[in-house]
Amino acid sequence: MSQHTRAKFQPSGRIQFGVFFQGVNSGTIWKAPESGSQTDFESFRRIAQTAERGLFAAFFLGEGLRLREHLGRPHALDVAGRPDAQTMLAALASVTSNIGLVATQNTTYNDPSDLAHRLASLDLLSGGRAAWNIVTTDNAWTGANFRRGGYLDHADRYVHAEAFVETAKGIWDGVYGTPRLPRSAKYRPVLFQAGDSPDGRDFAARQADVIFSAHPKFDDAVEFRADIVSRSLAAGRGANDVKIMPASEFILAGSEHEAREKKEWVRSLQIGPQQAIAYLEQFWGRELSAYDPDGPLPDIEPAVDETSETRGSGFHGAKARELTAQWRAEAAEKGLTIRKFVTSRTARVDATFTGSYSSVADTLAEYARVGAVDGFNISPWLIPTGLDDIVNHLVPELQERRVYPTEYAGNTLRENLGLATPVRSASLVPEPAR
Amino acid sequence: MSTSSEGGRRGFLALELDGDGAHPAAWRKARHAPDDLLNGARIRNTVLAAESAGFHAATFADGSLDEGSGIAGRLNALQRAAFAGPVTSSIVLVPEVDTVYTEPFHISTQLASLDYVSGGRAGWLVKASTSAEEAAAVGRAVVSGAGLAQEAAASVEVSRKLWDSWEDGAVIRDVPTGRYLDVDKLHYIDFETPADFAGQRYAVKGPSIIPRPLQGQIPVLAPAGLLAEADVVLVSAPTLELLADELAGIRGRTGAAVVAELDVVLDSRGQSASARLTELDVLGEWDSPRARFVGTAAELVDVLTDLLVVADGVRIHPAVLDVEFEELAQLVLPELRRRGVLKPVSPGGTFREVLGLGRPLSRYSSTVTVGGSVVVGAEN
């Protein structure tokens, strides 16, 4: 492609799906009779094979490095207990044939040589279907489970991550000597990245093949696309080189009315009374079980000496007072109970597509037409049946509108995402990351 | 030579499936194209064939290959085992996993996950890497001597504690109280390396991020002398005679299951084992610490029958996997089964069952058994 065409973004006119089996989150309903196991292999097999039946491009797994905590003890209310991503994906590779297998892996508590080797191994084992979703962590709380312990300054996390990724690419390219494994047919694992800060976006524009974005809402998605296109060009890459797949949730039914009713039911199970109280407790830093989930927000002040680094208690001290006062005012003004307020904050408000199969298909077709995204990474709210209605009803509607694949383009993830095979840059000899 | 299983002891057979075989020149005699070694089809075919032949366990060596090994590389052992999990139903899957230059928390999660994808058929062959290359790759100084055993012991203890850190039944899904987990059944392990630890000391907080493995505790295999607390000890000696002596000696000193390590070269397709070995040795020198059997299938049946009197199992290292396997599957295992010296293979069984081990309660459990009866709420 000439420099001229590489510089202009061309909408593909199509969208694709991925599925994110989250394993640890509040969005997965465990209270319904059909809620299945989070650890049995059959749950993984069922989701992956359903996704493959629906021609999904990718199956994602998260990475767990420390159990979430709440007020100093493991958090009890949400699904938890997450198997190792690459081990599960290696197992899934034997019972699937086309779907991409994406492992979220941390650059702080993994070692570049070990991680690069295992990703290369998964890529060969799966016939070129492996991908790495690059994430960074900077807290010592997680480090307590690792020999390498320690933590990074928040500002340094992308500096470290980029050195790590360059090292991994160098290992795959044989920059540091003969690689332990040959490359798969499609060069190397596909790279996903989810950073959203300016540093994170630049990092993705330089390194990633696909951005797992947080911008599924139409206007937001269009704006994000424009931003990534300009950052990609600034990084010397083509306007279409970085694919975008936002996180999303789908609540679908035969009619609009049914879909809205279903949404009420889904939300009531996602945010039960205990989850609502626990959510506030993270920010108040103290126990609030005496408060009625269907009553107003707590009138007491948050504990100001809370210094736990537990993931989820995002801020401390004076900031907590300021925020909780603001919330109280907001809830009072809108007449929201604790439960309704927490639901409005935690449900994937922007990321949820609710409606009939045909109306949602119309909406997604518009994303495809303008090229707002390349696809959606769907978090099912039910395991393992959560993709069934998407694959059985939404996918055919999208195919009728000619905005969704009708077959896999090939056997490798690179082919199925429409990614070019990158040119090996052996002249680059990065400093190894440690 | 004994020809029956007097005393009713029956043993198990494991097959090492790494690469093209144990002999460094095995790749020259492999019955597949060189490009077909490092892919899923090769793993599926070899493990399924081993399962159909009646092997109780498959093992997968790991680590960086020596220079000039002749093959293009080695896929991660734990991934190979995991890949085989969903397509098999009875064969035990035992990857070798290093304990020196790896993160104990990751290993523990990976092995527990292997137990889930295999329905409780996971084992762990503990390795203490002596590779300078592997040390350099993670920026550590080379560990040697007594330090190796310390590293292995610490890593295994971390895994065992993490596997127990979720008691059975910690996932309660209690709708009325909104609790998915019973937090009283989750435990911080607060592991610390001992004061005399030769390497840089470390700590692991826990709990695990995955519920207790299906087997409760995954069986741990280790070469004799590496790990005091192994469930299975692998015994090597330079000759068959020394091997038998060594097995008897170790068996008297340990409660662990004892497995004999044996290199095997067999007559094949009209060519004698010794002629084949000569050919292979011309192509590359075979420097192995294990006893070596070179001969006919019938002779091997006798040797294995004798070994299984003094050992709980034998692990076979085929000189050339494709070639030796054909003889083992067609001539050796059927005759051993006829003689009744092999344990029956049970689809859906666990590795602990093969070893005759019960499923232990978590060490953190508040439910303990005393004299065979269950006591609830005892101090832990």
TrEMBL record, chain A:
InterPro entries for the chain: Diverse_substr_monoxygenases, Luciferase-like_dom, Luciferase-like_sf, NTA_MOA
UniProt key word Oxidoreductase: yes
Limits of the Luciferase-like domain: 16-372
UniProt entry tagged with the keyword Oxidoreductase: yes
Record: residues binding FMN: 104, 154, 158, 197
Keywords from the named record: Flavoprotein, FMN, Monooxygenase, Oxidoreductase
Gene3D superfamilies: Luciferase-like domain
UniProt GO MF annotations: monooxygenase activity; oxidoreductase activity, acting on paired donors, with incorporation or reduction of molecular oxygen
PANTHER family: ALKANESULFONATE MONOOXYGENASE-RELATED (PTHR30011), C2H2 FINGER DOMAIN TRANSCRIPTION FACTOR (EUROFUNG)-RELATED (PTHR30011:SF16)
Family: Belongs to the NtaA/SnaA/DszA monooxygenase family.
Protein name in the entry: LLM class flavin-dependent oxidoreductase
UniProtKB/TrEMBL annotation, chain B:
InterPro entries: Diverse_substr_monoxygenases, Luciferase-like_dom, Luciferase-like_sf
Domain Luciferase-like per the UniProt entry, residue ranges: 40-224
Pfam families linked to this entry: Bac_luciferase
Species whose genome carries this gene: Arthrobacter terricola
Keywords from the named record: Flavoprotein, FMN, Monooxygenase, Oxidoreductase
SUPFAM superfamilies noted in UniProt: Bacterial luciferase-like (SSF51679)
Keyword Flavoprotein listed: yes
Name of the protein: LLM class flavin-dependent oxidoreductase
Domain of life per record: Bacteria
Molecular function in Gene Ontology: monooxygenase activity; oxidoreductase activity, acting on paired donors, with incorporation or reduction of molecular oxygen
